[in-house]
Specification:
Number of helices: 16
Oligomer: single chain
Order of helices and strands: HHHHHHHHHHHHHHHH
Distance between the termini: 38 Å
Helix content: over 70%
Largest sheet: none
Strand content: under 5%
Radius of gyration: 25 Å
Length: about 290
């Protein structure tokens, strides 16, 4: 009896009559709401940025980008991301490897600490660094005695950026490596391979797409970070202003065209990030399809 019912349910006529999508009206409403939301929240702000940036003409736009303070902000942003992202990549790979491949006391605590930047405001993290490395902080007197400047200087900006971005690589790799398990690494170890060779020949090829995805997200957040950096930078023009801080200063000075011109650089960086992200995802899907074949 059960077999007869199953056969009827799986017959070609039953599959054709079985509803596989929502009614047309529901689909139209959902798609319209999604498009309207994206238009209001994403498309219109992007159009506004470029419209305001070119409001006074292309000459003013490019002059704003060639301003010495704007160029210094671009240089500092790239330098900060160029240091923070590799550091977080090394940490993320090491943390994911330790959490997924080994058993040790404090593993749950480590996972909780990795999620900490997601749970607290970036401004609070900046204040914590002030309390630690500021002139009257815990390490402030020692740093002053040794003529080491952390707060209101590049090291503080790198520390703040690294703190708010360090979960991205680790959080991308941990579930991926947990799903893959450790059977291949154990097999390689049985055949005589050692730690570094196992990582480069077995683990890294399996996690390379997830690793690239985490690096892209980490880099995007590093370049756009505002809250923590604004606290520790001191907003010294031409010295400790990253691109987001430069946008705020120009806007507060009523230099609207210049502020939107600098903001357009961040928009372009975001677009480039999305393009690279899409390429990585497409390449990953292509590799998965080849493996299934």
């Amino acid at each position: 009896m059960a077999g007869t019912v199953s056969a009827r349910l799986n017959s070609p006529s039953a599959r054709k009559s079985r509803p596989t999508t929502e009614p047309l009206a529901v689909r139209v409403v959902l798609i319209t709401v999604a498009l309207l939301f994206l238009t209001v929240v994403l498309v219109l702000p992007l159009i506004t940025v470029f419209a305001q940036a070119f409001r006074n003409g292309a000459s003013v736009y490019f002059a704003s980008l060639h301003d010495k303070d704007a160029l210094a902000a671009v240089k500092l942003t790239l330098l900060t991301a160029g240091i923070a992202v590799p550091l977080n990549t090394l940490f993320g790979v090491a943390a994911a490897w330790a959490i997924t491949k080994f058993r040790f006391k404090g593993k749950n605590l480590l996972i909780t600490l990795i999620d900490l930047p997601f749970a607290i405001s970036p401004v609070i993290s900046g204040l914590v660094f002030i309390l630690l490395f500021g002139a009257k902080g815990w390490f402030g007197p020692w740093l002053q005695d040794h003529d080491i400047k952390v707060i209101f200087a590049l090291p503080g900006i790198i520390l703040a950026t690294s703190f708010v971005t360090f979960p991205f690589v680790a959080r991308e790799l941990i579930p991926l490596m947990q799903a893959q398990g450790s059977q291949e690494e154990e097999a390689a170890a049985t055949l005589g391979a050692r730690g570094w060779r196992i990582f480069t020949k077995v683990t890294l090829p399996n996690i390379k797409w997830g690793l690239l995805y985490g690096i892209i997200l980490c880099n995007a957040r590093a370049m756009g970070e505002f809250g923590a950096v604004s606290v520790v930078s001191g907003k010294i023009r031409g010295e400790t202003n990253t691109l987001p801080l430069q946008v705020e200063i120009l806007y507060n000075d009523y230099k609207f065209a210049a502020s939107f011109a600098v903001a357009s650089l961040l928009v372009l960086l975001a677009v480039i990030t999305l393009v690279v992200k899409s390429l990585v995802e497409w390449k990953h899907h292509q590799s998965l399809a080849k493996e299934k074949e």
